[in-house]
């Protein structure tokens, strides 16, 4: 039973660590030959996993066999502490809820031991680092305004904490959930509280969490350049508020971005 919950929590934790460590992730079906994950209470997992494995047949399935001797011999690793389960749940549950999925009953954190027992606690250094960064969150979809007036764009720059340009790309897939990515660099118009080394990853994860919004922003197999304005909330979460699709004919956006350098709100 202990190994069951350990493997299950590590599988979910891999999603969180992939979000926080800057990797673009995707959900895939757990293959039947991955016996160690049979009957864990869910049918999909996220790649890359927390070990950095991204190839299902070449890495994930073969390495999962390393767990089988533990199951066969009865030698169990230390289970996660309740605090680790809570940390994973608090980070993952809002993402699952945003996409219409409840937190799995099999991962009820009350089933895990308290920290005074022999168990795996959260990584303090990693938790402290992640806490200081803005975080993507589930939100109501931002307004999208085509062909805005120059003053409208300048007002958005003034009213919100940050403004950036980013190109969204949507892969055309025959089956499964659509995949979105930020294509190329994110350029700052107004940096505000955003961090240069984290912003592309932050917006990428916003797209993965807010799939319902992302579906409206980009058609399958296409890319679209946007000006994004928004704020970082008191709890550290990112909120995109106004989006302006930037087409070649949109001279007002180009003029507004140039004027912003000398503009006073």
Automatic annotation (TrEMBL):
Residues 77-122 form the FZ domain. Gene3D superfamilies: Frizzled cysteine-rich domain (1.10.2000.10). GO terms for biological process: canonical Wnt signaling pathway; non-canonical Wnt signaling pathway. Pfam families: Fz (PF01392). GO terms for molecular function: Wnt-protein binding. Keywords: Developmental protein, Disulfide bond, Signal. Residues 1-18 form the signal peptide. InterPro entries: Frizzled/SFRP, Frizzled_dom, Frizzled_dom_sf. GO terms for cellular component: extracellular space. It comes from the Eukaryota. Disulfide bonds join 85-109. This is Sizzled.
């Amino acid at each position: 039973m202990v190994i069951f919950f350990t493997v299950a929590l590590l599988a979910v934790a891999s999603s969180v660590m992939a979000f926080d460590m800057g990797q673009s992730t995707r959900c895939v079906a757990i293959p039947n030959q991955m016996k160690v994950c049979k009957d864990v209470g869910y049918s999909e997992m996220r790649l890359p996993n927390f070990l950095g494995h991204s190839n299902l047949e070449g890495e994930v399935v073969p390495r999962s066999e390393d767990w089988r001797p533990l199951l066969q011999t009865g030698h169990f690793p230390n289970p996660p502490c309740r605090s680790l389960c809570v940390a994973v749940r608090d980070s993952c549950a809002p993402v699952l809820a945003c996409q219409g999925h409840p937190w799995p009953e099999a991962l009820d954190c009350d089933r895990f031991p308290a920290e005074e027992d022999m168990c795996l606690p959260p990584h303090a250094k990693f938790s402290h680092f992640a806490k200081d960064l803005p975080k993507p969150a589930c939100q109501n979809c931002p307004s999208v305004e085509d062909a805005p007036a120059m003053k409208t764009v300048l007002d958005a720059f003034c009213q919100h904490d940050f403004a950036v340009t980013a190109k969204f790309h949507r892969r055309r897939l025959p089956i499964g959930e659509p995949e979105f990515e930020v294509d190329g660099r994110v350029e700052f118009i107004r940096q505000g509280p955003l961090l240069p080394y984290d912003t592309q990853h932050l917006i990428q994860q916003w797209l993965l969490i807010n799939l319902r919004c992302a579906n409206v922003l980009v058609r399958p197999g296409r890319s679209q350049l946007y000006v994004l304005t928004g704020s970082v909330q008191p709890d550290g979460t990112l909120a995109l508020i106004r989006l302006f699709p930037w087409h070649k004919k949109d001279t007002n956006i180009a003029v507004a971005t140039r004027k912003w350098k000398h503009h006073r709100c």
